[in-house]
Amino acid sequence: HLHLDNAATHSRSFTVPAPTQTDSVLLRILETHLETLSFDSSITRCTLKIEASTPSSQQLALFENPLRDPNRFGETLARIRALVGEDSVGVPLLKNTHRSDSFTLGDPLVVFSQPETVASDTQNRTTTIHGTALGLPLRRFRPAREAEVKLQSHRPVYLSARQIHGPVLECRGPFRLSCDWWHTEPWQTEQWDVLIGGKMRGLYRLSSHSTSRKPIQQPSTWFIDGCYDGPNWPETNSNR
After folding, report:
1. Phi, psi (degrees; rounded to nearest 5) at 117
2. Among 28, 99, 220, 234, which is least packed, fewest CB within 10 Å?
3. How far apart, in whole angstroms, are the C-alpha atoms of residue 117 and residue 129?
């Protein structure tokens, strides 16, 4: 607790990744946080409380290795959080939703301490037969590319976007998804799988999004979400 001369108090709790008696490790945790602080008033008093804990025991798998230095790893994460913000550091985890490419950031120290659970959850989300994944992998564009689409009887017949343009030789859809209708900001999307001819011939994912409860009648904005694995890929190797 840092007590300021304007009667305000700044409080922060720290969880040490691995119990330790090394004072330099504990002081580095405090120093990393103190370097990011700035107050309009002077600090008049400091209170520090340390709670003891016992080392955790864990039965590792045959080929599983623990973190070599959990406290050093935690210190590195703290420095990164100080640079980019507390909510911008973590391990991407899929959200429990049908919304495409929706994820949340998990605490790295928690995720990496349970590698078997995370791997099992990820494996269960993939449809397989005898260990072989089904379907073509979709290489997503991040961010999705805005495109101009010419429609005929509400079916795409021509597509134009950065580096990608050509007639639609074949299409499948629309595939409609919607969710969060019970929230104040529901969403829905209309997706098409389109085969583009010409120089950038390939199979692409085309979509139009809406945050309204009304059905998408005439989409005004289209996006190319990505390209399915195929002989042509509209990116250089460094951007894959």
Report:
1. -65, -45
2. 220
3. 21
Q: Which residues pair with 194 in a beta bridge?
A: 171, 204
pLDDT digits over 28-79, tens only?
A: 878 878 887 888 889 999 998 888 877 666 665 555 555 666 777 777 877 8
- Measure the CA angle with vertex 45, ends 39 and 50; round to 5°: 105
How far separated are the first and last CA of the chain, in Å rounded? 47
Question: Which pTM does this prediction carry?
Answer: 0.54
**Bridge-based pairing state of the strands 128-129 and 132-133:** antiparallel
Q: What is the DSSP string of 24-86?
A: HHHHHHHHHHHTT---SS-EEEE-------PPP-----TT----S-HHHHHHHHHHHHHHH-G
Tokens of 157: 């017949």
Residue with tokens 């998804």: 177
C-alpha closest to that of 154 among 140, 168, 136, 135: 168
C-alpha to C-alpha distance for 141 and 206, rounded to whole angstroms: 11
Task: Give the tokens for residue 87.
Answer: 């909510």
Pairing of strands 2-4, 43-46: antiparallel
